[in-house]
Amino acid sequence: MELRHLRYFVAVAEELSFTRAAERLHISQSPLSRRIQDLEGDIGALLFDRSGSRLELTPAGHEFLRQTVVVLDQVQRATESARLLAEGHAGTIRIGYMAAALYTDAALGLFKLFQQQFPKVRFSFMLMPHAQQFEALADGRLDLGLVYGGCIPSGTLAHVPLTSDPLEFMFPIGHPLLSSPRLELADMREEPFVMPFQAHMPGLFEQLTAAWAARNFRPRVVMDSDSFATTAMLVSAGVGIAFAGRQAGQRFSGRVGVRAADDFEFTWGADMVWLPTHESPILKRLLAYASVNE
C-alpha cells in the first residue's frame, strides 16, 4: 500500500466516479481501477459497491475514507514541518543567557523581529552563568549563548558582537547623587555597593576591578546578588547602589535612577556564542538574520 493509492481512493470516494477521479488525478481510468482493486485486496474488504447504476461507498469504505483523510492530513503536516525545519523556518533554538545581555535593545529586538518573520520558530531561554553556557554549548544542550562582558574562551567557540554598552551606576530613586551636578568615582567611595553576579562573570570583574584600581577606587561591597533583576530590586529598596550597562539599567527605569560617572568610562558588550559544528538550519538562519540586521 502506497500513499498515492490512498490519494487515489480519496479522489474516487469524493467523486463517486472512476472517470471523474481519473481526470482529476490526470491518469487513465484503467490503472486507477486496478489500484483501487489492489487496495481492496490489501485491506481484505470492498470499499465500493459497484452493483448499482451509481458507484457507492460501502460501510467499510466510509470508515476507511474517514481515517484516510486524517492520515493524509497528518502526512501533509509532517512533510511541511520537516521542510520548514530543514530550511530553517521552524524549530526550537535553545539559548543560554546572562540577564544583562538579554536586557539590551539589540538582543530583544533581534529575537522579536526574527520571531515575527518566522512565527514557527520557538526560543527556549535558560538563565546560565558564562561557564555553564560554554559547557552546555560544547555538549549540545544549548544552541546559542548570550554572554556579557567578553571573556570568551579561545578554541572551538565562535562569537559575534551583539551590542556594546557603557557602564553606568544605579541609585535608589531620590538618592542625592542622582541630582548632583557632577558624579565622580570618589563620590561613591563610601556608598554601600550591591555587587551583581560576580562569580558568574569573573573575567569581566577582573577587567573592571583593574580599571577602578587605576583610578584609586574600590567599591565598598555590602551584598552580592545572583541576578541583575535582584540587584535592581535591592537598589530600589535602598540597600545600596550598583553598576549596570546603560541599556540594562534603563529596563528598570522608574524603580531606580541611572547615571554615568563623569570621570570614568568603561564599555562592555554582549556577544552571541555558538559551536560551529553544532549549527542547525534554524540557528544558521538566525545568525544570518542578525548579520544583515545589525
TrEMBL record:
Domain HTH lysR-type: 1-58
Stated name of the protein: LysR family transcriptional regulator
Gene Ontology cellular component terms for the protein in this record: protein-DNA complex
Lineage: Bacteria, Pseudomonadati, Pseudomonadota, Gammaproteobacteria, Pseudomonadales
Coiled coil: none
Family: Belongs to the LysR transcriptional regulatory family.
Keywords: DNA-binding, Transcription, Transcription regulation
Gene Ontology molecular function, alphabetical: DNA binding; DNA-binding transcription factor activity
